[in-house]
Amino acid sequence: MIVTDADQPDNPILFANDAFLRLTGYGREEVIGRNCRFLQGADTDPVQVARIRAAIEAGQDIAAEVVNYRKDGSTFWNALYVSPVRGEDGAVSYFFATQLDVSDKRKAEQTLTDSRHDLEQLVAERTSELTQALEQKTALLHEVDHRVKNNLQLISSLLLLQNRRVSDPAVKAALRGMLDRVSAIATVHRRLFQSDDVARFDVSAFVRDLVADVIGASGREDIAFSLDLERVDVAASKAAPLALVINELLSNTLRHAFPGGRPGRIFVGINRIDEAFRIEITDDGVGVDSSTRLSGFGFTIVQLLCQQLKARFESTDASPGTRVVIDLPVDVAP
Amino acid sequence: MNDQPLGVLIIEDEVLLATELEFLLEEAGCCSVGHAMSSHEAVTLARDLKPDLALIDVHLCDGPTGVDVARRIQDDCGAVALFMTANVKRLPEDFAGACGVIGKPYSSHGVKTALGYLSICMREGHAPGPPPIALTLSPQYLALWGLLDMPRAG
After folding, report:
1. pTM of whole model > 0.80?
2. I want to staple A272 with a disulfide (CB 3.0 to 4.6 A). Which of A121, A248, A277, B93 is the partner?
């Protein structure tokens, strides 16, 4: 603490206590009679100094934090508080100034600022890296998606071209069967990246596409179909096997249920029952006999894929016609 | 336009796809007038053959030039452009002036239905109903063929 004499020119120090001397390292005789600007140095902020000077000239209180210099040249952060002491006439006769060494606080603040700055920079760098990585992955996903679709188109074209060349009905039927299977997978891939969630697959939308395509391609305008599709999502990894199963059952119904131009109806339904969902294909065709049951390779595909999907497959007499039901456990969303 | 079959130019860098597509075109009652594999070839053939419709893949053998080809062909010879691409999402919002897109992988039935539908639209100047599932029309052609008031097919 010091007291300065406002009546003398340049406001010299009149009194300094021991704490002030300990803080600054000066002897009493070295400070009495001097203006306290001797504590300032190169690192002292001139803006703060100007603030203090202005307050003193205006006779007002001022609090400021400045870098001050000890006698040995070392620095400390000084939290300064100066207040004028007025005489009976109201004029300022003295200034009373307290000093507090806040170097530790300042240092802690600086460290905090520095580390926050470092951290912010680190976060910015990492964000930029991740953004770039994400962009690359998205581009890669699009590229792979594009290639898969083009290759499926290529496979379809190959099968179609060969189918045009062969005349043996058995070979034609086999090629047609394979083409339908590839088309079912193609329908999956056309749908797969349409939603924002690339991990889920909307079965009902797929079935709508598939039914339109399979029945449309059959040219059987005498077969009416109706749909009752509840929206059910499955994991994208299950989409292709499920599509193959549905394709197999639907193709089989079309092939066998309505022989000799017999007209009829096909119903396809999807609904959710507790922890499973049910796909149902019912026709009013010629019914279950040896000729309408899934046979050969198609049946093997359905059996194997139901095993893979942990699904239950059942074919019953619907008199008239046949009712095929697949119960598939609903998987927990990833 | 009269009842003559649509003259169609195929712009596709995969020869097997293009060959099969030619068969499909004939089956759909269209007439294939030629096949181009690069953007340069496409623009030249379109100028010489004056097709009614150009089926355009976005990726050609000289890169992703299909969008540019669509614009140039329409400007040069007034053909209607239709994209056939696996990258439907990457098409510009205005479809570069094309009438629409068939997404790959397409099915034979899907393409035939779409071409049959387009033949009617182009002949009549308006649509007979909502477009088939395989075909997505551009906003411009939805308006042109009077489909803005009609509900879209699911």
Report:
1. no
2. A277
